[in-house]
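Trying the structure run again after the queue cleared.
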Amino acid sequence: MIFSWYVSAIITILFWGIADVFYKKGTDPEDRYSHLKIAVMVGLVMGIQAIFELNKMGWKYDFFNVVKYIPVSSMYILSMTLGYAGLRYLQVSINSPISNTSGAIAGILAFIVLKKTMGTWQLIAVTMITFGLVAISIAQKNIAKAEQNTEDNRGGARHKLGAIALIFPLLYAIVDALGTFLDDVYLSKLMSPEEALISYELTFLFCGILVLIYLRAFKKIKFNIFRDKDKALAAVFETVGQFFYVYALDTNSIVVAPMIASYSIVSVILGRIFLREKLGYKQYIIIAIIMAGIFLLGLFE
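Done. Tokens:
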């Protein structure tokens, strides 16, 4: 990999933050299968990327790795589907920060279980990022609770479900943290980043195909994968981010996991700019703290 772990992490943050906005734009609160349609699109795009990677490797890949990697893949795919479902009811600036407290949880697991360490300045930076992620998730959670009795202009499901919808990003945080922790174990002992990437993408492709068959054959849902540009763009940004993510994580996950989780800050900022979501001065202060932490990590890389 020509990029350092820090540059790879920054690229992942930017691409996944942009992906979140397109996920939200491609989500219809009135469509109960919206999250499944997104999963199909992501699976198909990841499948294309997997074929590209296999070709680059000369197809020298043990396909049993797909089976071996299932514990990690299943955690990631489940968490992402929960995240897509949460976007039906919550603003991206609320859903994303709460979801991405997973980075803090994964960092703690890496420290306690895998005995990973960091330098003094890295500790300060990661503490700033972790504090910021938890603080902004609490702030956005309070906004969600305050809005639960507010009339939804579209009369959609979010109003009916209210703050109970917070269960989706909370579950995402737990499941994704477990996935990140397991991924760290695999990258440390069992697989190269390329093998892990291909295994995950092929699993997502298989799941995407199964879900597409379910929607078209059993639910008779009309879904043209070539016409939904928002879902397609979300899938592309997600896949590119995933490519750089495995290389970033294949270093010191106790630092990388909380840092990459801060992509929710990009989601919050873009949600404010393009989706006109609310953002108060407290959130801006927290964003500044997280960005300062990221800068420190780069300074002392």
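Residues 151-160 have pLDDT under 50 and may be disordered. Worth checking whether this holds up in the mutant runs.
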